[in-house]
Sequence to fold (213 residues):
Amino acid sequence: MKKAGSGIVAAVIMALLAAPGGPAGLARADAPPGSGLVLVCLDPGHGGNDSGANYNGVQEKLVNLDIALRAKPIIEGMGYRVLMTRTDDSTLSLQERCDIANRANATIFVSIHNNAYMTDSEGTETFCYYNSEEGRRLATAVHRQVVRRIKLPDRGVKEAGFYVLKHTDMTSALVEGAFLTNPAEALLLQDPRFRQKIAEGVAAGINDFLMDP
Fold:
């Protein structure tokens, strides 16, 4: 969600944004997991002139990117290739994100977000596209591993018609780690150790999905 506000973690997170992006290229959809031919597309939500949610001193676009940059080397260490839709604070349309994944023939697509609603809203939820059996399996794998690590209330796996879930050609999921509108969860998101746990959960869930085709 796009809201106005100010950020106090920007300087800390921006120092991480210079990390190199993932390699582009084609991946065979039928490649065995861990073969180096499987291509995982990570999509850090929002960016540039779209800050996403902006509450309690945290800009969603920055924490989304930081989590994705932390997940990338973990996933690569598992033997997969990683393609990022963005590696810096740049503006991308929803269709451009889909185009990046589709042109590269990515094996799976995972969009990384954090949530906003009420000040007492809490927990983690993960989405797949309507009636997508494989999407639900990917979302469930990622969700389970993230919840296991960050130990916030489990809001479950849900179906939604989000643009990036509908218009990507591959199995896709969208994870909402924590609520920026909740002061306690926003404080957690300012902690790099907490963001690392989300990244590790995303990576482990992706590996679970790919290792159990």
